[in-house]
Amino acid sequence: MLTPFEKFLFVIAALASAYFTLRGLARIAKNISSGQGKINWSLLPKRIVRVIVKAGFFQNVFRFRLIPSVFHVLIAWSFLILALTDLTDPIYALTGVRILDHLGGVGRFYLFIADIANAAVLVGILFMVVRRFIVRPANLSTRETTLLHPKARFGIKRDSFIVAAFIIFCNTGRLGTVSSQVIMKRARIVKPSGISGCLFPIPGAGFPPDARLHRCQRRDRSQAETIRGRSICANAVRLRSSH
């Protein structure tokens, strides 16, 4: 949960982001409507279903380059899965309530899937980074004979780097945050260990809280009895040596 000052900064940043997003959408709508003819809004219900199917199953992506397309889909589907957790994060930041933690088995299962999706995004984006900046196939760049401003050529690579760095930073941060939460909540693990548990395994995480507590109590008693026994033996040795 954020402090009051951090909440203020968060709200200001969210409002600024919403303002510039709406401003960009208005500019796009203005450019489209500036052409000839009028927009036929009656076609929207028919086309929106088609767009959802094509976008959800990435029909156009799989037409070419099968392996890169698989990693594209891996990133996109993982982002869709993480969308719900991203929507609950502002609620937690402002109220301190984790909604998914209070949904029982359904919430834990979704968090487990989100944990895997988070790692899938990192795998996919690392593949794209290697392909874009190290392998550098010819179809990812414009031909030298194509007339482009020099700044445009540089801007394409710069924008790709910014997007990749942003995704890696955000998803690595989320993975580290979840891992830290798993470590701090030893008594009651509400987030599934998943990928985070592989990075930071917790002894006894597979046992219920009461069972782990009993194990710790038995271990403490065993250690205390061992120390007591050693003390008795040491006292006996000292008494024998004094006689």
Give structural notes.
This protein is mainly α. The protein folds into three domains: 1-34; 52-206, no CATH class; 208-243. It is 74% helix and 0% strand. The chain is built from seven helices and no strands. It has helices spanning 4-33, 44-57, 66-95, 104-135, 150-184, 194-199, 209-242. The radius of gyration is 28 Å and the shape is extended. The termini are far apart. The model is unreliable at 187-194 and 199-213 (pLDDT under 50).
Q: Low-confidence parts, pLDDT < 50 over ≥5 residues?
A: 187-194, 199-213
Task: Supply the helix-strand structural class.
Answer: mainly alpha
Radius of gyration: 28 Å
Q: How much helical structure, as a percent, in the residues?
A: over 70%
| Share in β-strands | under 5%
- Element pattern in H and E: HHHHHHH
Number of strands: 0
Instruction: Report mean pLDDT, rounded to a whole number.
Output: 75
- Overall domain count: 3
| N/C terminus separation | 67 Å
Sheet of most strands: none
The shape is extended
SSE blueprint and pairings:
Layout: H1 4-33, H2 44-57, H3 66-95, H4 104-135, H5 150-184, H6 194-199, H7 209-242
Helix pairs in contact: 3-4, 4-5
Structure summarized in a few sentences:
The protein contains seven helices and no strands.
Name some characteristics of this structure.
243 residues; mainly alpha; 3 domains; 7 helices
